[in-house]
Design brief:
The chain is α+β, with helices and mostly antiparallel strands. It has a domain of 44 residues. It is built from one helix and two strands, in the order ββα. A two-stranded antiparallel sheet has the order 1-2. The mean pLDDT is 82. The structure holds zinc ion. The site of zinc ion has 7 residues, from loops.
Length: 72
């Protein structure tokens, strides 16, 4: 069974050419290499700027406490 290669830069599957970003250093194959789209590949959208779930939750909590502090 083959697994799809996932790009470390954009988290999308790689169809076609790829580069090895980091070799897995695992003789057993348990830790696979990591892959990325070749430089300049239009299929690679890059890392999204979206904030993590934790970051968004913390931001909402901070905004709420600030508005409570201001008596809004
Ligand atoms: Zn990519």
């Amino acid at each position: 069974m083959t697994f799809p290669r996932i790009c470390v830069n954009c988290d999308h599957s790689i169809v076609g050419d790829f580069e090895v970003a980091v070799e897995g250093f695992s003789a057993s194959g348990a830790r696979d290499d990591t892959y990325r789209h070749p430089a300049g590949d239009p299929a690679c959208t890059g890392r999204t700027a979206d904030r993590s779930v934790v970051s968004r939750a913390l931001g909402a909590a901070v905004a709420e406490s600030v508005s409570r502090f201001r008596g809004a």
